[in-house]
Amino acid sequence: MKRSDTFWDSAADKYARKPIGNEAAYAQTLDRTRAYLSPDQNVLEIGCGTGTTALKLAHSVGHLTATDISGRMIEIAQGKAKDQAIGNVTFAKQTIEDIANGSDQYEVVLGFNILHLLDQPEDAIAALHKVIKPGGMFITKTPCLGEKLGYLKPLIWVMQKLGKAPHVHFLNYARLEGMIQSGGFDVIETGSYPASTGSRFIVAKRV
Questions:
Q1: Which of these, 32, 63, 49, 180, lies nearest to 113 by C-alpha position?
Q2: pLDDT (tens digit, 9 = 90+) per residue, 43-70?
Q3: Domains, the chain
Q4: What pTM does this model have?
Q5: What is each CA distance from 206 to 18, 76, 138, 188, in whole angstroms?
Q6: Alpha helices of 1-51 — where are they, by DSSP H?
Q7: CA triple 198-118-34, angle to 5 deg
Q8: Which of 186, 144, 140, 135 is closest to 46 using CA atoms?
Q9: pLDDT by residue (tens digit) across 136-174?
């Protein structure tokens, strides 16, 4: 389930300055996510980065706890929340193991652009199952590089050796959905936003 916090700490400031790659696809992802959110919910986001998505969804939920393994990412996110005067989002440096070992329970867990970066995504999904209330939702969007961008694998391997890229799984749709189902969820909605890159949006209900 681990990611390199050192890598992401060093990348945080550049990441924060990077514009959204596909605004239309991002907006569609947010719209479909909001369809499952309500003001009475306690929501968790894993791999929140610099907090952009958490802050955009804040007004749709009661409280949102947004976590990342990078302390620098969290610092930037906290600064954004202060600047935007958003008070119902708590940013915290936490691993998925930390979350699973805690006592908090959530109606919804969000994980955007994160599962393909984890060493053991299957273990992460199983751990998150424990903190979602029965009938609650796991909503994720994951780049499935194995679906349409498998040709990038040699390039990413070189970049990893140079310390310029993190560990990446080349998932496809079937494997990703299978992992989520095996983790104790029913997949109730899927979409590809944007379809051209194979980023898979999935809403799954805890069973």
A1: 49
A2: 999 999 999 999 999 999 999 999 999 9
A3: 5-206 (3.40.50.150)
A4: 0.90
A5: 34, 32, 7, 10
A6: 5-17, 23-34
A7: 55
A8: 140
A9: 999 999 999 887 666 666 666 566 666 766 778 889 999
